[in-house]
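Run log // design_07
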């Protein structure tokens, strides 16, 4: 296992730690940052999410720079993204920070694309994320980070930045999903 793949695996391993800080009240107190109230646990959880999300860029950068792109990495990287994003979105619904219908659509798209990736992999094809998929992931990560941090720095101005970004992420999630299925429709047609 090369370094980029190890970083991807570390992203997966950070997920349960992130979840614990988001759902367990350790009685660590409350902070007021940029006009926003935020528990210390949620701040730590949000920072863990941001660190895990940053590894997505870092492992891809290392893999491309040092020519370490592998089929395992092409499979693990999007899986790690989906696990991280899905966990965070479910937590946001539990916290009342994200509408459940939006989360259902986003997670459903992730399952559908993962299913298609498995069908492609069964045929010997491993498809790396395209530009739309990268935009989708970036908008999701920005939306989630903002919502996890209670819309920090924007709340004081009454701007629901995190929610706006979540709807932008929803748009890109749907668009990239349609694009992914359209570009790989030959696989679906062959399996019918």
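design_07 sequence
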């Amino acid at each position: 296992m090369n370094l980029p793949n190890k970083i991807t695996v570390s992203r997966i391993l950070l997920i349960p730690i992130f979840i614990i800080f988001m759902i367990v009240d350790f009685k660590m107190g409350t902070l007021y940052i940029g006009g926003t109230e935020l528990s210390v646990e949620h701040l730590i959880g949000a920072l863990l999410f941001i660190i895990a999300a940053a590894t997505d860029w870092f492992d891809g950068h290392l893999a491309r720079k040092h020519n370490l792109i592998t089929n395992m990495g092409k499979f693990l990287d999007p899986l790690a993204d989906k696990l991280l994003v899905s966990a965070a979105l479910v937590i946001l619904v539990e916290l009342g920070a994200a509408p459940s219908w939006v989360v259902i659509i986003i997670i459903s798209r992730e399952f559908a694309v993962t299913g298609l990736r498995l069908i492609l992999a069964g045929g010997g094809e491993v498809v790396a994320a395209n530009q739309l998929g990268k935009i989708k992931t970036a908008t999701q990560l920005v939306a989630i980070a903002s919502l996890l941090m209670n819309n920090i720095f924007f709340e004081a101005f009454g701007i629901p930045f995190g929610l706006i970004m979540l709807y932008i992420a929803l748009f890109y999630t749907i668009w990239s999903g349609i694009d992914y299925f359209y570009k790989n429709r030959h696989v679906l047609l062959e399996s019918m």
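Strands lie at 30-33, 36-39.
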